[in-house]
Design a protein that fits this description.
With about 270 residues, the protein is of the alpha/beta class. The chain is built from eleven helices and ten strands. The chain has an eight-stranded mixed β-barrel, surrounded by six helices. It binds ligand C2E and magnesium ion (2 copies).
Length: about 270
């Protein structure tokens, strides 16, 4: 059972999400993903941030679950998607033509009847080519209605959008999802980065990257915090990494400089 103060806090978050969205309290931060082979930043993950006028900074771990429970994730998620597509198109026009963006899609959003047409409309309005958009879902999307989720994911893929399975390796992590659903990318959960120095973890990562490659999926290891972890991720077959070792999620005005710095370093040792 929730403690009264926790229940009060969650209710207060729930009541403030839509007003906060309307009054500009939300923003999108971007975290680069590094391709270990080309040493290029090929894409960014868009992550929602909320600085509430009453409470201050609130972690996504708190507000995303509340927004998911109340259904407000539909409006919030759509705003994040629009903002990220528009911003990425801007960066593409300003010196980074191949940049792609990954946006998290919650199970609740996938249940919306018109989700595919809404995403199509956002791509058309922002002018972002669908190939530069990746949608990240976790296996939780399959738990309630896998047949509907499969159908929606197929339709999204037909638009040309890429699909990633996020936080893989925790929960049920059914290998069946990888064969039954049309994913392009497998994002291994941060727990593997945390214990990458342990031989058993290395065996598991190597097995997962090999499996993913044979199924035609790109593997990303999330949560890489040091250069040692980065080198090990490469040795264990991960094609891309994401984490504080490369860059923390940053606000929009910092990204162009970060991308330019990486482009200038291309091919050089990190
Ligand atoms: P996620 O999609 O797995 O995103 C990665 C999370 O790991 C982000 O947390 C990021 O800041 C954090 N992270 C990245 N590198 C490192 C690292 O090296 N070390 C550590 N310790 N953490 C790292 P964040 O931004 O707090 O987001 C948490 C989760 O909230 C996300 O996990 C995602 O599931 C959800 N989320 C965030 N924005 C959105 C959104 O716009 N829509 C939806 N549906 N979910 C979102
Ligand atoms: Mg994600
Ligand atoms: Mg993740």
């Amino acid at each position: 059972m929730l403690m009264p103060t926790e229940a009060f806090f969650k209710r207060s978050l729930a009541n403030n999400i839509l007003p906060g969205l309307e009054s500009g309290e939300f923003s999108v931060y971007y975290q680069p993903k590094l391709d270990l082979v080309s040493r290029k930043i090929k894409g960014l993950e868009a992550l929602a941030r909320w600085c509430s006028s009453g409470i201050g900074w609130i972690s996504p771990a708190e507000f995303i679950s509340v927004a998911e429970a109340t259904g407000e994730i539909v409006a919030l998620g759509e705003w994040v998607l629009f903002t990220a597509c528009q911003q990425t198109r801007n960066w593409q026009k300003n010196g980074f033509p191949d940049l792609s963006v990954s946006v998290n899609l919650s199970p609740r959003q996938l249940e919306e009847k018109n989700v595919v047409s809404r995403i199509e409309a956002i791509l058309a309005e922002t002018g972002l080519d669908p190939h530069f958009l990746e949608l990240e879902v976790t296996e939780s999307v399959f738990i309630k209605n896998s047949l509907q989720a499969l159908e929606v994911l197929r339709e999204l893929r037909e638009l040309g959008v890429r699909l990633a399975l996020d936080d893989f390796g925790t929960g049920y992590s059914s290998i069946g999802y990888l064969t039954a659903f049309p994913f392009d990318c497998l994002k291994l959960d941060q727990v593997f980065a945390r214990s990458i120095h342990i031989p058993q973890t290395q065996i598991v990562i190597r097995a997962m990257t090999r499996l993913a490659r044979q199924l035609g999926l790109v593997t990303v290891l999330e949560g890489i915090e040091s250069e040692t972890e980065m080198v090990m991720a490469g040795h264990l077959g991960c094609e891309q990494i994401q984490g504080y070792a490369i860059q923390r999620p940053r606000p929009v005005d910092k990204i162009a400089l970060i991308l330019a710095n990486w482009r200038d370093m291309e091919g050089k040792a990190i």
